[in-house]
Amino acid sequence: MRFRSKLRGSGSQSTPLAGLEESKVLVAIAGADGAGKTTLSRQVEQALLHMGVEAVRLDRFDILNPTLSPASAFIDTDVQTLRNSVLQMPTATARLLFMLWSMAVTVSSHLDQADASRVIIYDSYWMKHTAAEIIFGADEKAALATASLLPQPDITLYIKLRPEEMYRRKHDDLVAYECGMDPACHPESFLQHQRRILERLDSWSQRLGWQEIDGTQSLDALVAELVRRIGEARATWKCGEPATLAL
Questions:
Q1: What share of the chain in percent tops pLDDT 70?
Q2: Contact partners, residue 172, CB within 8 Å, separation at least 6
Q3: d(C-alpha 104, C-alpha 180), whole Å
Q4: The CATH number of domain 25-232 is 3.40.50.300
Q5: In sequence order, what DSSP letters do the residues of 130-160 get, joined into one string?
Q6: Distance CA 29, CA 198 (A)
């Protein structure tokens, strides 16, 4: 089945919590490196909890958290060791398969529980890593077909920033993976790699109906906008329904 855009207009009569009472909602916060996905996903989770909405934030490293991802409790290591081990995998395909598995097992742990949190916020999800591994050599058609096996979001919020602004925010905290595997993390390596990621994210956003967010806003304004858009996403279909991504 082809992925269906699950967007709704931001009608003036809607409220920040409109639709959240209907069923679980899977939210993906997408963007390139330095767009603020992690900060925003944490802040949105806290804002929803403060409003009395059941919410949980997930990322791929939660395979190390047996409370959030009991199915992966057999993995006994720390985040840095896991990160380094993934980077040492011999091919882009191997890395991508492992990362997509990490995402699938963590999100499924919550979607499959009857009492799971109502709003599931996934930091980054499959979008950026799939784009990166395609750049590093994974076959694009196969990569998207594999990503389509994951539960697909009810709403994808795509945080948009220019590469130069992302570099300004992140220049003192770069890793080679974010710089096209340049171990020296030269500025141009980061900028060139992020431009290539953005080309794919922009294309997928148009094809899949993501909601694009101006990432230059203040943190408070961004959190408020994301909470509002989540509230307007009417969960009238099964959350996390598998789909085939349009190529």
A1: 83
A2: none
A3: 25
A4: yes
A5: HHHHHHTT--HHHHHHHHTTSPPPSEEEEEE
A6: 14
Confidence of residue 25 (pLDDT cuts 50, 70, 90): confident
Q: Which amino acid is at 188?
A: E
User: Rounded to whole angstroms, how far apart are CA atoms 91 and 175?
Assistant: 18
Q: Which pLDDT score is estimated for 107?
A: 93
Q: 134: which 2 tokens?
A: 């395609």
Query: In whole angstroms, what is the distance from residue 2 CA to residue 34 CA?
Result: 31
Looking at residue 216, the DSSP 8-state letter turns out to be T
Least trusted range by pLDDT, from 10-19, 139-148, 182-191 = 10-19
Residue where the block lists tokens 């408020």: 224
> Do residues 42 and 136 touch, judged by C-beta distance below 8 A?
no
Which stretches of the chain are DSSP H helices?
A: 37-50, 79-87, 92-111, 125-135, 140-147, 163-170, 187-208, 219-232
The tokens describing 31, both together, are 């963007």
Query: Does 18 or 133 have the greater pLDDT score?
Result: 133
Contact 28, 157 (CB under 8 A): yes
DSSP bridge pairs for 198: none
Q: Rounded distance, CA 181 to CA 145, Å?
A: 25
